[in-house]
Predict the structure.
Amino acid sequence: MIVFGGEIHLKKGKEFSIQRNHPWIFSGAINLVDGELNNGCWVKIFDSKGNILGYGHFQEGSITVRIIAFGAHEPDQNFWSKKLKKAILQRKITDLPSSTTNAFRLIHGEGDGLSGLIIDFYNGVAVMQAHSYGMHADRFNIANALKEVLGDELSAVYYKSKSTLKNADDLQDGFLVGQAETPHVVLENDHKFLVDWVIGQKTGFFLDQRDNRNLLGQYSKDRSVLNTFCYTGGFSVYALKAGATFVHSVDASARAVELTRKNIELNGFDSSIHTCTESDTVSFLEMNGADYDIIVLDPPAFAKHRSAKHQAIKGYQRLNAEAMKVIKPGGIIFTFSCSQVIDRQLFYSTIVSAAIQSGRDIKVLHHLSQPADHPVSIYHPEGEYLKGLVLYVS
Ligand code: SAH
């Protein structure tokens, strides 16, 4: 049973976005609060006339409520398992999991109607990350529902929210269900990867580049590839398996460089065809960027907040202009931005500015995005965060 901390009553006219299934209620939309609301508690949401609009998690701050159940129907004890089953069914449509891919995103926040929750599935291990106190408060209910719904397919649930919820007093990362050793081997399109959710970034692996890595593979045969911001070497492994003549991976983190090396070995390649360098990407491009047929640019989010947008645009522009300037004639650039506040149009304009700055003749071959296991609710366009372009530089 769900225990409610109280009620939220909205100002007149503030119900419209909720009736259109947008899950966020900003503090300015609230007329009055009934009850003593603690961070993370469940609340019932009403319009100004007293009609029920839905149910969600309360949290002090600009997004005050995240709605996770729309309409009058009150969530029952099967709420979490129903949501999980729905998400699993949707993954099955795109053949996830399969005999060649056993790592995928099981819950993608608002895209799966669960604002504040990420669950990545790594070959039997679910890694759960809360981005709201409500999801933190419900972590055991979610873990139990995972157990119920996945049965034998689930060996462990690891909870990792220390980095996403800085002020939760009782917060500890660790297993909520079972145990599993790290690093843990997963398969992605038949490529092997080691995932370490304990020391790795985010939940341990960047699942959102799966389709784009495949596309890189299609271009890599008989070409040399520079994979910058390589992290655990996802793009590098695909390029090698597809027949690249040579792959060079670059990352500013020594740990990432080490993980990349291990993943290259795990897939049967060695230093005769792959090198890994710990370096800043722009400095590396300035010195060595002219040696490659393909360059991958997949930086971390340069803008994590709206306030950093301007600086971020300058960063993307500088990085891309440098790669465009140095790449061989006939070269191909895979360029990405995962900053949510930089939308597709702005990213495109930034790339156009970089192209002008480089003075090269450049064509767009592909527009890229996030894969189907990172769905975007049509009512929550903010959920689209990964943008990419494949550019041909003649
Ligand atoms: N392409 C990767 C994910 C990239 S995540 C994949 O497919 O898995 C971003 C990476 O950029 C991180 O590993 C981080 O260590 C690295 N990084 C951050 N700043 C950097 C810089 N200035 N130069 C090179 N790498 C950097």
Remarks:
- The first helix runs from residue 16 to 19.
